[in-house]
Amino acid sequence: MYRPKRWQINPAQPAAAELAARLKTSPLIAQILLNRGISNYDDAQAFLKPSLLMLADPSLIPGLSAAAARVAKAIRDREKIVIYGDYDVDGITATSILWHAITLLGGSVATYIPHRIDEGYGLNPEAIGQIIDEGARLIVTVDCGITAMEPVKVARERGVDLIVTDHHDWHGEPPLLPDCFGVVHPRLPGTKYPNGNLCGAGVAFKLAWAIGQNISGAARVSESFREFLVEATALAALGTIADVVPLVGENRVLAHFGLGGLQQSKLTGIRALIESANLTGKNLDSYHVGFLLAPRLNACGRLGHANLAVEMMTTASEERAKEIAVYLEGQNQDRQGVEKLILEQALAQVESNGWGDNRNRALVLAAEGWHAGVIGIVASRIVERFCRPVVMISLNGDSGQGSARSIAGFHLAHAMESCSSHLVSYGGHEMAAGLKIQADRVEDFRRAFCEIAAGNVTDEMLVPQLRLESTADLSQITAPLVKELQRLAPFGHGNRKPLLCIDAATVATPPRRVGKTGDHLQLTVKQDRQMIRCIAFQCGDLIDRLSPNTAVRLAVEPCINEFNGRSSVELEVKDFQFAGG
Q1: pLDDT single digits (tens) 106-128
Q2: Helices 223-242 and 200-216 meet at what angle, rounded to 10?
Q3: Is 126 in the same domain as 233?
Q4: Share in percent of the chain as helix, strand, coil (round to 5)
Q5: pTM reported for the whole predicted model
Q6: Burial letters 19-51, b for 16+ CB under 10 A, else e
Q7: Cα–Cα distance between 280 and 270 in angstroms, integer?
């Protein structure tokens, strides 16, 4: 269903022409760079031509040097190391990066991934005890652990070193940190590290790099380990894009080189994953990772156990990796069915309670039997529909497990902390969080959470916003321009796909509904003598407003449409504006 959006169009940048001339690119590309705060030639060149030399020194991350030295000692002394990871794509890839690094360096290493439903997110005392019983002398967490005060005590009491590597928000200010051998986190107070937005896989990549340096005894790692680090950017890119961290700075570098290396990867698991998604031989971008590859990796953690995905990425033979990839594809299809059912039930709950209007600045939905591994995805779907923070809670008897998703400007982790008296536990960051709650506290939590939202979510925030780079004429939208726009990729959080405003256009031909259920529109628009074909997804109900010669203003993403071996420029319309509103 079509929902009008709030447009914010960047004004023309006077410096664009000069920057474009120096870069030998179009003024529109220069305008987009300036919109992103990139104003000088050197920074613009670095953005357009990422280099692995731009990656920051790992030792700048607080706690990392000491952690790397301890892991290196364990490798030399043949101590058993266990990597304790999370069950999402970021955790799976972070676990895999460290496993490959330690294995390549001759260490004795195993992995542990908690079961999403049975154990929940993060460290738990029982798992730590079991890992130690099985002979671990060093435990390294990835993508979790920053709030695990009690579980780390088990390791300390039993004389086993535990290192926490994480990127999520901590509790308290100043930070209340786990009492363990060391904490590695890119945002700890006092840090000189330039990228506080590393994901878990990014932190693991930097730790692996520093372990390699420690083993070699020099800033330069061995040639074989250097080749591994370049290979590991593919895993880091999967985690970085899937975890929706800002694709700027070194995150952009990791994503750029990792995406480029996916198809050439020597890792059996990555090849099997790409093959299962029918992407072998194709140029992969952030869309393929976010919507085709990542959901397959996530599926086993949502409906089964994520250790299968870790096995595929680490120890599996080629035959076994293909077998797991096929299984993950089936799990992903099952997940889609479960997701659809829960979404229908959640929307019915909103409607029956009258929670869909603007008086309600947040939604807290709960039901018995909702699959806890899928509710996070459903929360995202509901945020897209209602443009407000959403908490989904799966109830199981006396207890509940929840996932939350937010909108820009409403910090979930802070809101959870304010509601913590109603929760058993919680964790996360600004845009996504998880929680555990007793069933009899759900209504108290709903009132408290919605009260916080009422004081922080403005009327403006309830309308989806489109940020447009510039106004452009149809005559500017050419194949060379679309190719130039691709130099700004990879696109994602923090580096959005460029949206352009087309002013004073008219509908040239009668639009027609397309898609299985006619939800989308196909039309042609014109401006002066220029005509171009458009596709507008989820805008089928606008067909009566788009008759020929109707004046429209368009928010568009230019793209190349490949069909029957022919390429043509097309506009994907993200929103329409009509004369008179």
Answers
A1: 999 999 999 988 888 889 999 99
A2: 170
A3: yes
A4: 45, 20, 35
A5: 0.91
A6: bbeebebbbbbbbbbbbbebeeeeebebbeebe
A7: 11
- Reported as a single tens digit per residue, the pLDDT across 391-402 is 999 999 999 999
Nearest alpha-carbon partner for 228 in 101, 334, 316: 101
- Residues 113 and 249 occupy one common structural domain: yes
Clarify whether residues 319 and 365 are in a common domain.
Answer: no
Please give the angle made by the CA atoms of 486, 492 and 494, to the nearest 5 degrees: 105
Q: How far is CA 418 from CA 45, 122, 413, in A?
A: 44, 21, 9
Closest CA to 276 of 308, 307, 315, 231: 308
Q: Which domain holds residue 195?
A: 58-330
Q: Which two tokens stand for residue 208?
A: 């692996």
CA atoms within 13 A on the CB side of 416: 30
Buried b (16+ CB within 10 A) or exposed e, 209-242: bbbbbbbeeeeebeeebeebbebbbbbbbbbbbb
Name the CA dihedral angle for 280, 286, 289, 290, rounded to a multiple of 10 degrees.
-150
Distance between CA atoms of residues 453 and 139, nearest Å: 39
Distance (Å, whole) CA 114 – CA 125: 11
Residues 343 and 366: their CA atoms lie apart, in Å, by 12
Q: How far is Cα of residue 463 from the mean position of the Cα atoms in its chain? A: 22
Looking at the fold, whether 449 and 536 belong to one and the same domain comes out as no
- pLDDT tens digits, residue range 340-371? 999 999 999 999 999 999 999 999 999 999 99
Does residue 279 surpass a pLDDT of 90? yes
Q: Which amino acid is at 54?
A: M
Same domain, 293 and 365: no
Strands 138-142 and 425-428: what pairing? unpaired
Shared-domain flag, residues 150 and 230: yes
CA distances from 114 to 127, 128, 204 (A): 8, 11, 18
Read out DSSP for 423-488? -SEEEE-SSEEEEEEEGGGHHHHHHHHHHHHHHH--TGGGS-EEEE-EEE-GGG--HHHHHHHGGG
| Owner of token pair 């953005």 | 47
Within the chain, what is the greatest distance between any pair of CA atoms?
Answer: 78
Strands 470-472 and 465-468: unpaired
Task: Compute the distance between CA of residue 33 and CA of residue 507 in angstroms, rounded to an integer.
Answer: 31
